[in-house]
Amino acid sequence: MANLNDHMGRPIVAVTGIGVVTSLGVGKADNWAALTAGKSGIHPITRFPVDHLNTRISGMVDFLASSSKGASPLTYELAETAAQEAVSEAGLDSGDFGGPLFLASPPVELDWADRFSLYNSDKQESGSERLLRVARALKELDIFETTQFGSIADRLADRFGTRGLPITLSTACASGATAIQLGVEAIRRGECDKALSIGADGSATAEALIRFSLLSALSTHNDIPEKASKPFSKDRDGFVLAEGSGALVLESLEAALARGATILGIMRGCGEKADDFHRTRSKPDGSPAIAAVRAALADAGLSEDEIDYVNAHGTSTPENDKMEHLSLSTVFGERIGSMPISSNKSMIGHTLSAAGAVEAAFSLMTMRESVIPPTINYDNPDPAIVLDVVPNKKRNAEVGTVLSNSFGFGGQNTCLVMAREPV
Amino acid sequence: MSSPRDVVITGIGLVSSLGEGPDAHWQKLTRPGIEPVLDATRFAPYTIHPLPEIDWNLQIAKRGDQRQMETWQRLGSYAAGLALDDAGIKGNDELCATMDMVVAAGGGERDEAVDSAILAASETRNDRDVLLNEKLTTELRPTLFLAQLSNLLAGNISIVHKVTGSSRTFMGEEGAGVSAVETAAARIRSGQSTHVLVGGAFQTEHSDMLLGYELAGYLHRGPWRPVWQRQGAEGGGVVTGSGGAFLVLEQREHAKSRGRKIYAELGPIVSGRARRRKGGLNAEIAKLLSQAALPNGELLAISGASGAHAATAAEKEILDANPAIAARGFSTLTGHMKEAQFPFAVALAALAVDRKAGYPVFDATVERPFDGTPAAVLATAIGYHQFEGLGLIKAA
């Protein structure tokens, strides 16, 4: 009989379903094949014209039916696709899930395509007066719903039959990890025996790209798109904006075993700590990220020596990779130079609100497959960052535990610890 | 019977057109026949409840921080500061560093001038996507993005007030406010948190914030009316207001150990998602009421009803069906504050419990008097479009 409670007496939380979509494809099989082959999903932008833009590449998901229909429809489709894969794999009824929904998704705004079409459907007045007058005459709710922050989750709740009021959240680039953390916590508190946690982001619009670009956050290495994202390299110059989704079915180990489900992995611990230093930069001593990693380890009941692999946040911005190295080397000490630490973002770019969930999905697969996906484009190592980044080629390795980091604007730091087996 | 892990309220921060702070709100709201503060001209044909005059310096000491925010984030940071002050936590590094935070947020203000210029130019250009790139790359203020991001209200609270235990932002209109309070309470009850800052803010004085309602025709037009009396009037029934509400929720034991005043205890906080298109709203509200462990006898209800025709009619019908309930629709006096609506309702309920008195009617035509001493008060937030929640706030 397996131990059903963790070191703090809480129900152990298992993963019984995983779904993923990135620029590399739909589903775990295609993504895993590409990821372990070191293939990049970064490509030239074709969704909108790139005139006047400094960055003309991205990891957009261009192959779904909603890919050209705006941020809300695409985010919904990404979430639905990943969740369907996860719920199917878990062997649960995909119309009657019966547990709560936690959705990490980007903040919504009225798309420019809709702004233009509303505005130009009339000639009277100008500016916001005209928009408001046209708006109140609309007969359909479609455009309205793209502007409601709760509507994507509401549709998903209908689609999957999740229970109660769905929670939509944002902790910026840590959102996906927070969605998982909320699910884990709900199960540990005994509020439910299963939860659906999704991170989805289809918001790579021109305006989003320009906003990040104005903050100098994006790579401008446009010429060879698949080479642009180069975490931990000396010549890294920013992240690559991307889209994707990851979904996990979380269940108490007890409920999962009772129904004979396959256990894909264990969510061992979650940790977080907010940073009060600056809106986009980390405290120079890295103390909040360090505290988040340590909180996740403590929550998992594991020591530093018991982490086999780190799935890095690894965005490829000068700031993140330097600070992530500082915090990891503080926590793991001398061992840091010999621990495998790779960044999925070298291949899929930064999927923003989805990143924490996508990378948790890949972390779980890393353990199951005993293969560590590489950090590609590692041709010019940053001498100040001495890490085993699993350079350029996958590595076969037994991985029993993973630490996955997510850090975001607004001082967000969330870390997840996953294990292959229950204790 | 009280338990050490009860969830109690030890700090309240409020801002609305009526003023700021719990005392100012209590004084105004208990004055019979108080008139709302309205502005019917700036956004005509819509009426709004505008922000009062605020000296931001009182809660956001650094001008540099103020400049990094637009009004929405300033308002939220300000209301959060009021709550922290009220709970005796502000400036206490140790308590702030271990304090968790759940913020209910929408998005921040866009640059209306830039948007209008792009829309105007779109009338004479067919290459609108190129126009967009051209204008946005040259005219957007780079840091404006940070004033718009939903989670940056929480981010600013961390920076300004040093609340850094954890930081989570929930989105989704009134439902986000309900989930924020519900989740914070669950964390405290389970021992995950000892003290949590929870709340939200809404800044309606921006055309995009009105557009968010009006794309479905939700806003009331024409002469102002109390929230219960907008059925059949021109428009959709919602009159918005700028405001914010933050609460410090604390484990009873934790609050007692530092000798703090306790306003009230949180009873059950329940939430739901009615299938409204299938006519499920009345039944869902009734179900939530049945889960809230309502006490026997006369019950004061602080209703966050928005005025939206269908949702407000449903709520009124269910509340009216219980003859013990005397409801107060506070949107009559503050306007609808979206994500802040439920935290605001909880705050007003807690004040009534703490002061051992009810509020006079906010609408003499529809509401009925309540003369008892409220030992428990119901707080509701039925979303104008989706999601529902309510909670029972009890004497500590």
What attributes does this structure have?
heterodimer; A: 423 residues; alpha/beta; Peroxisomal Thiolase, Chain A, domain 1; two-stranded antiparallel sheet; 13 helices; 17% strand; globular; B: 396 residues; eleven-stranded mixed β-sheet; 37% helix; transferase (chain A); Beta-ketoacyl-ACP synthase (chain A); 3-oxoacyl-[acyl-carrier-protein] synthase activity (chain A); Thiolase-like (chain A); PKS_Beta-ketoAc_synthase_dom (chain A)
CATH class of chain B: Alpha Beta
CATH architect. name of chain B = 3-Layer(aba) Sandwich
Count of separate structural domains of chain A: 2
CATH architecture level-2 label of the largest domain in chain A: 3-Layer(aba) Sandwich
Name the CATH superfamily classification of the largest domain in chain A. Answer: Thiolase/Chalcone synthase
Q: What share of the residues of chain B does DSSP label as strand, in percent?
A: 15-25%
How large is the radius of gyration of chain B? Answer: 21 Å
The DSSP helix count of chain A reads 13
> What gap, in angstroms, lies between the N and C termini of chain A?
12 Å
GO molecular function (chain A): 3-oxoacyl-[acyl-carrier-protein] synthase activity
Protein name (chain A): Beta-ketoacyl-ACP synthase
Keywords (chain A): Transferase
Pfam families (chain A): ketoacyl-synt, Ketoacyl-synt_C
In short:
The complex is a heterodimer of chains A (423) and B (396). Chain A has 423 residues and is α/β, with parallel strands linked by helices.
